[in-house]
Amino acid sequence: KCRLIACEEAWSIPEVAAELKKVANSPTQSADKLLVKGIYDAEVDTSGYGKMDFLGGLLDVEEQRLPQMDQYGVDMHLLTLTAPGVQMFDADTATDLAALANDRMAEICAKYPKRFAGLGSFAPHSPKRAAKEVERVMGELKLNGLVVNGHTNGDYFDDYRFWPIFEAAEATNATIYIHPRGPSDTLKGPLMDYGMDSAMWAYGVEVGTNMLRMMAGGVFDRFPDLKICVGHMGEMVPFFIWRINFMNSRSQKVGRAPKTERSMEEYFKDNFVFTTSGVEDPLALRYAIDRMGVENVIWAIDYPYQPMKPAVDFIENFACSDEEMHALCHGNAERVFRIA
Ligand SMILES: COc1cc(C(=O)O)cc(C(=O)O)c1
Ligand SMILES: [Mn+2]
User: Fold this and answer.
1) Ligand 1: distance of its center to the CA of 311 in Å?
2) Which candidate, 126, 43, 125, 32, places its Cα nearest to that of 82?
3) pLDDT at position 53, please?
4) Ligand 1 binding pocket, CB closer than 6 Å
5) Pairing outcome for strands 297-298 and 272-275
6) DSSP category for residue 152
7) pLDDT higher for 50 or 223?
């Protein structure tokens, strides 16, 4: 029996849920509003917003989550403050609520050190205070890394204003998990129909765009030791990496893209790891392992958005060697997120 550490497990606290409920009823045009209204303002008629009953599962640790982990043999959840985190709030409220959520998360991990680890949050729109929170998360709180959800007010991580956060993450050897959220106002265009604004499509486009902007924008030349984790089998990038590499190299040659010290493929292999969250497809997993190396692939459930049992069955039935199984199920997570 392999130790099972699930590494994109969503969670929240009542104070963040209450603030998101206010956002749900605010005039914001953010693409996240559909999801936020459906989850955090669910008791009112949300026709047209698609009521989705995830709130109970997000707030819960001991009533449903832990018993299900026991039932299905999941040793640990690596907890993350669920998207869009604190990023829809003003910078002061976001800074305060990130710190509160991090304190609560640290309490859970201290109470159940064999069952929960966690990624701390921060307010990217207050980069200097965010950098301080990174140091507190990795120092005093002894959490296992950081999580952030896609763009912040439409800005992506090739923007130098986020550098203090990357400096603090590099200095504390902390991996930053870039989790999806709805597409930014400039990206959302034709993505808002047919449910495409969600995890169906726009989430992958949103994170994939952020990743490519970081790689092609030279972020990993400036921060060579910065480690990023993404979910959902690498947000389509592993499948497309040959073409991304070829076309960016050509653009650099003809001056359409800035010169970088290394290639897109090298940055993706050296500076990224990714989880299987929400992609329970054995063929996609085999491709990802063979293409990117098993040391870069980490199992995850994406609870409560994905049910726990199917994700456990998926990985336990996956055809692979013992070494690969141990790497996928716990070895890589122990290394990347410093889990004992
Ligand atoms: C933050 O809300 C989420 C919703 C869903 C969904 O299944 O609708 C998926 C994810 C996710 O893929 O992480 C996140
Ligand atoms: Mn998720």
Assistant:
1) 15
2) 32
3) 87
4) 35, 82-83, 180, 198-199, 203, 278, 302, 305
5) parallel
6) B
7) 223
Query: Ligand 1 test: best mutation among 36, 194, 302, most atoms within 8 Å of CB?
Result: 302
In degrees and rounded to multiples of 5, residue 77 shows phi and psi of: -110, 130
Q: Where is 230: in which H helix or E strand? A: strand 228-230
Q: How far is Cα 315 from Cα 105, in angstroms, rounded to an integer?
A: 27
User: CB neighbours of 232 closer than 8 A, spacing ≥ 6?
Assistant: 180, 199, 203, 204, 207, 274, 275, 277, 278, 279, 302
**Residue 103: other Cβ atoms inside 10 A:** 14
Confidence of residue 44 (pLDDT cuts 50, 70, 90): low
Confidence of residue 51 (pLDDT cuts 50, 70, 90): confident
Question: What CA–CA distances, in Å, run from 85 to 99, 137, 149, 152, 212?
Answer: 12, 16, 7, 11, 22
Tell me the residue type at 50: G
Measured between alpha carbons, how far is 133 from 161 in angstroms, rounded to an integer? 16
Give the residue ranges of DSSP H helices in the chain.
14-24, 33-40, 55-59, 65-72, 91-111, 127-138, 163-171, 202-216, 219-222, 232-235, 237-253, 264-271, 282-292, 308-316, 322-326, 332-336
Does 45 score more than 60 pLDDT? no
- The 3-state DSSP class for residue 9 equals strand
CA 244 to each of CA 150, 205, 247: distance values in angstroms, whole numbers, following the listed order? 20, 14, 5
